[in-house]
Structures
1.
Amino acid sequence: MTPISQANGTRVQRDVVSFVRRSTRMTPKQRRSWEAHHDDFVLNLPQGATDTSIAPDAQVNLAAAFGREAPLIVEIGPGMGESLVPMAQARPNHNVLAFEVYQPAVARIMAKLAEQQVGNVRIIRANAVEGLERLLQPGQLDELWTFFPDPWPKSRHHKRRLVTTPFADLVASRLRPGGQWRLATDWQDYALQMRAVLDSHPAFDNDCAAGWAPRWPQRPMTKFEQRGIDAGRHIYDLAYRRR
């Protein structure tokens, strides 16, 4: 953990996180989107020690937040929402909860949601690991999407990768029996790590007899994914089901 300073001058320990810390500076257009749509889509929660953490005693009533009871899908790190928005739009009978830490990305997502009149998405601007642990109940989750998480390519940074056995334990506790976890990455060694973690995990079955899943046609091609393909990287899809 890394010590950081708070406004009152005290020092706290910042946990190692799985996402790269980037600038939160917004353009004027993103600022307008944030101000216009924040109340419609963003769930405000008490913060922990940092601006991307969630207070240990935080709670959220998802039925109230969405205005209904419905099967729950969570996406971790949807970026600018290129795939999140059309995938949520195609699933009007599901509630879709997105964890995205970057405020400019959230502003872009909200603009797309408003433009496409997609009303079944809510966003939490915080660390998804804390969100799953502190906000969701056991068995509450129907499906988890983890598409192109930060790869942390350097060996010394692999400990920062999201998909680890402890995280798989957490996901298993939140998925209902029969619930699905879909993943994708364009980094081979990370794909192999995902396979090693999940193939050996007692709570998950690989949905694909061949091991690797075919590309999921319901996931729209994004600019990010296309850049990986253009750079010569293979896209690895995986699909696991909670026992």
2.
Amino acid sequence: MTVKLSKAEKKVKYDKKLCSMLDEYTKVLIAVADNVGSNQLQSIRQGLRGESVVLMGKNTLIRRCIKVHAEKTGNQAYLNLLPLLVGNVGLIFTKGDLKEISEEVAKYKVGAPARVGLVAPIDVVVPPGNTGLDPSQTSFFQVLNIPTKINKGTVEIITPVELIKKGEKVGSSEAALLAKLGIRPFSYGLVVQSVYDDGSVFAPEVLDLTEADLIEKFASGISMVTSLSLALSYPTLAAAPHMFINTYKNVLAIAVATDYTYPQAEKVKEYLKDPTKFAVAAAPASGVIAPDNASPVAAKEEEKKEEPAEESDDDMGFSLFD
């Protein structure tokens, strides 16, 4: 024989359960449970059993339990959960990988009919084709301005029709038509709204970020810091290399424009006095080694002379008529 507990006893029992979870788990998924039935929620509990625990309850009771537990333990990180307890939400305590648990929760969705007054989470489009309804049901289609025709004694929709737009409330006519057509346009399940990880709170989209995404965002941040530092002439670790290079360019420009010189500037002045040295310096990069006293024209002629030798190797010693 089961003993019925009073409301006060149920609250004490719930408080102990929640406090034990706060001590045991450091990762929590806050999920919206709108339009989720008890059977569906039980299936989710069974699917997550082993690594995770789903806890539902009144937000006011959960807030009070968290506040009291935070005062007792001195762990103020739990208080970050309080702003997230808005609406019909539940807590999923887990020890597993947050991304894997979030993906597992998303699998448990159940199709649902369009009920009157419900806000549509997606666009509902009625596809063209035979509905199987007799001609006496055409009044539903006429009210909703859906083009139809009678084909072999049944009503047939001619073109696809956007019946309900996302964010609109479902009317009685739309709900009746979708019920007659046997269309269950919506699907519901626990939707992860926020993630709590050892005191930190962030959006579930963060779980989808890869290392490449993090590196790209980090590089973008460094680029912005560098640009801002250079614009303000404020030295930072990110901008220091660019500042040194720009300063060196200014000093080099002064040395080139005046008689002042230093070892690194002398080579640049030599190249400016004799531009042909640029071509000589670039010759080794192209694979042609020119003598010290050779001109760029002589180096090019020597390169042309080597080409027939390569062609003779390809002929393997045979002429065209052998």
3.
Amino acid sequence: MNLGLGLGLGSIAVHQRPATVRANLDNLSHELIIPIQLLQVEERVAQGTIVKALSHPWEAVFEQIKTNSNLLYQFSKFPREFEEFIAASYERQGFKVLLTPRSGDGGVDLIAEKSGIGTLRILDQCKAFSKGNRVGLNDARAMMGTFKRLTDFNNTPTRAILTTTSTFAPTAKTEWKDYIPTQLELREHDDLIKWLSRS
């Protein structure tokens, strides 16, 4: 999965370890620098691509975000790279991850599955928004519509998640409060940082 080249005044090589990245961050601009490749293709299937995270590049991006959480907003210029970063984050947490195509994804950017006592199957729609640009009620409605539609098929999803670099409009939270967090999770900026820390 190729990502955009380094953004900003410097670049971080794919092979650099996080400690090296951290040491170089002060010399770079305050723009997010994305390694050339975050994901490795494991298998191509009809619904998309099964992916695996490349450890050092993911850590390089996360080190930047950990240093300055506002860098998350810069993914708004690169929404596909945000989807790939989130896909890599799930995979690092032990999920098998299917990344859907750029277009015609049926309202789902990725499907993450983890087996245990039961199977946890998550549908995630990623919204890379700039600061102050909130994810609205219609996006939450669309996600829940997709979730409800897919519960009629095999491999029923366990939960729908909307992940954003920004925040949600209050109406998105109030309309779906009876479904949060059991069926719908609204993962916004600060919650996203905490979730990434577990990867």
